[in-house]
Predict the structure.
Amino acid sequence: MFTFPIMAVRKVIAHGEEDAAANGGFRNPYYGTRPGEGEKSGFWLVGDEGVYIISNGKLAEGQKPLVVYSNECHPKGTDDWWDYKRRYFGRDDGIEFIDADLVVPSFDRNFGATYLGIRLTENDISFSLITR
């Protein structure tokens, strides 16, 4: 499982929405191979050098998206990040679009929750709210 502070997830979503409003919409997470899919408010879950979420609004030239690493898989803060990424995300790099409508309503109903947990299986992505 990968965990992210809910406040950070909210910031990533808001940052993407602000970028989209300023720069003409949302980026396609699938490099154009699935046109129109995932081009809405949300974020990308990325497995690369670590596992992180990233804002998805279109960017102005030179602008960078907001990136937040999972607590378990940050290459500069977790010694075993490489093994953890391979075990729970997979060996290959990848990207999954997460629609804001899938997570924000649960944040709004559960004010005591502090972290979003994301669990990947071969066929599914599941979410849980965690209170720490």
